[in-house]
């Protein structure tokens, strides 16, 4: 099975986050519509005094900015991180200027400060988001001290106490901080999940590629059979025609022998496509399949015992998903085992169950509940068994993807996985499939 290099947790988030220009332009148009509606209602509907010309100028700046972007760039353009920060900073400055004209911190629409921070948290790096959040809080502090009066009924002026305004500042600060952390955490976990799934898909694609190479080899054997047969026939004719003492007789014999050898090799490859009893291409007993999966993990000082028994005989397909899932589980058991790993396969008329057990310390209680999620692991170099210290298995740090990939691929093939600790005996992983999901139906060839 081909080795796959897994990314570390630090590289799970894309290195160059990008935001679509179309998204920011659309959200800015929504903001323009909302701001315009609020100004119209306050000025024309409620007839409150406010600097409507300056407010219109601030809203017009956003309109001109959007129109300029539509003229200069296609909406499908993706913004890199610095460009996205500049766009969001413009929106914050525009909102700050508008709020300074309409009451500052007293204006309930200060809640809109959260929007640019949330957009940044869900699309950009944490460092960039923290910088934008700091700039936002600076603007909130600015409008707390520098602002025009809140538009209100001149006959019943509103005077809010300083204590209340301070509370508004604190609540807005806490709101920005909480939504930032929540949005970034949620988006980061989603990005990590997508990266882990991509790794699983890549590993599966490699397995499928190897399978495709086998079919290609069989097809190539058929295609090359005819020209090689012609070469053999011509070589034999030449060998019979030339005199026994001809200087090129040995070369002709060598040519014929090598052509015969090529035909034998291609004949073996062609049998992969036609032989009824071809184990790799057609059907494989479950015990033999497990021996094949276990074989790369032997020779590391860990005794691996495989047993397979059940109702009748069971032949299964060599599905890449099953091979990779069981391979990850067995590798993990070998890494944590003290001296022995057992792979016990049983089956009934309806279900196949494979139990993988080791005599190691068991699954850490701190990660037990989250085991199966990406990047959840307690593995480290210090946890490698003494029998394999110094080997590559003992030196690598766990990425927390092995269980996740195994669980994902198992569920993808219709199965399920359960984890448990056996007191005094180590960890135990149980994989179950419907028998029909693994068993290949017998096909007849015409």
What does this structure look like?
The protein contains 13 helices and 9 strands. Strands 4-6-7-9-8 form a 5-stranded mixed beta sheet. A two-stranded antiparallel sheet has the order 1-2. The protein is elongated, with a radius of gyration of 35 Å. With 446 residues, the chain is of the alpha+beta class. Helix 3 runs antiparallel to helix 4 (114-123), helix 5 (126-145) packs antiparallel against helix 6 and helix 6 (162-241) crosses helix 12. It folds into 3 domains: 14-160, no CATH class; 206-274; 284-438, 2-Layer Sandwich (Heat Shock Protein 90).
Features:
11% strand; disordered C terminus; 5-stranded mixed beta sheet; Heat Shock Protein 90
Set out the fold topology.
Blueprint: E1 19-20, H1 21-45, H2 52-72, E2 78-79, H3 81-100, H4 114-123, H5 126-145, H6 162-241, H7 249-274, E3 284-285, H8 286-294, E4 303-310, E5 315-316, H9 320-336, E6 340-347, E7 351-358, H10 365-368, H11 392-395, H12 402-412, E8 416-422, E9 426-434, H13 435-438
Parallel strand pairs: 4-6
Antiparallel strand pairs: 1-2, 3-5, 6-7, 7-9, 8-9
Structure at a glance:
The chain is α+β, with helices and mostly antiparallel strands and 446 residues long. The protein has helices at residues 21-45, 52-72, 81-100, 114-123, 126-145, 162-241, 249-274, 286-294, 320-336, 365-368, 392-395, 402-412, 435-438, and strands spanning 19-20, 78-79, 284-285, 303-310, 315-316, 340-347, 351-358, 416-422, 426-434. It has 3 domains: 14-160, no CATH class; 206-274; 284-438, Histidine kinase-like ATPase, C-terminal domain (Heat Shock Protein 90).
């Amino acid at each position: 099975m081909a080795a796959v290099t897994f990314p570390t947790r630090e590289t799970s988030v894309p290195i160059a986050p990008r935001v679509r220009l179309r998204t920011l332009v659309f959200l800015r148009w929504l903001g323009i519509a909302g701001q315009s509606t609020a100004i119209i209602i306050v000025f024309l509907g409620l007839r409150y005094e406010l600097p409507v010309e300056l407010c219109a100028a601030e809203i017009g700046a956003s309109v001109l900015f959007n129109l300029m972007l539509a003229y200069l760039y296609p909406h499908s353009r993706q913004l890199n991180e610095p460009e996205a920060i500049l766009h969001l900073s413009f929106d914050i400055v525009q909102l700050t200027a508008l709020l300074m004209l309409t009451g500052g911190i007293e204006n309930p629409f200060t809640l809109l400060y959260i929007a640019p921070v949330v957009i940044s948290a869900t699309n950009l790096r944490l460092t960039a988001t923290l910088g934008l959040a700091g700039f936002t809080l600076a603007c909130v502090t600015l409008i707390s001290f520098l602002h025009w009066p809140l538009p209100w009924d001149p006959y019943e002026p509103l005077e809010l106490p300083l204590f209340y305004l301070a509370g508004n500042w604190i609540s807005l600060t806490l709101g920005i901080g909480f939504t930032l952390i929540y949005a970034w955490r949620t988006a980061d976990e989603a990005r990590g999940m997508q990266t882990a799934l991509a790794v699983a898909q890549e590993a599966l694609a490699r397995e499928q590629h190897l399978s495709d190479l086998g079919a290609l080899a069989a097809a190539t054997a058929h295609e090359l059979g005819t020209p090689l047969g012609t070469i053999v026939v011509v070589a034999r004719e030449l060998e019979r025609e030339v005199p026994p003492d001809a200087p090129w007789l040995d070369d002709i014999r060598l040519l014929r022998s090598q052509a015969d050898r090529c035909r034998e090799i291609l004949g073996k490859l062609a049998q992969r496509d036609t032989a009824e009893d071809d184990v790799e291409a057609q059907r494989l007993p479950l015990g033999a399949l497990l021996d094949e999966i276990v074989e790369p993990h032997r020779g590391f000082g860990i005794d691996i015992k495989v047993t397979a028994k059940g109702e009748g005989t069971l032949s299964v397909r060599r599905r890449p998903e099953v091979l990779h899932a069981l391979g990850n589980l067995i590798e993990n058991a070998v890494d944590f085992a003290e001296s022995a790993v057992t792979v016990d396969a049983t089956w009934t008329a309806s279900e196949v169950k494979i139990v993988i057990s080791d005599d190691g310390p068991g699954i850490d209680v701190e990660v037990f509940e989250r085991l199966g999620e990406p990047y959840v692991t307690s593995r480290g170099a210090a946890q490698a068994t003494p029998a394999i210290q110094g080997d590559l298995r003992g030196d690598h740090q766990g990425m927390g993807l092995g269980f996740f990939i195994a669980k994902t691929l198992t569920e993808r093939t219709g199965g399920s996985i359960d984890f448990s600790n056996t007191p005094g005996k180590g960890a135990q992983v149980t994989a179950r499939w419907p028998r029909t999901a693994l068993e290949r139906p017998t096909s007849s060839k015409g």
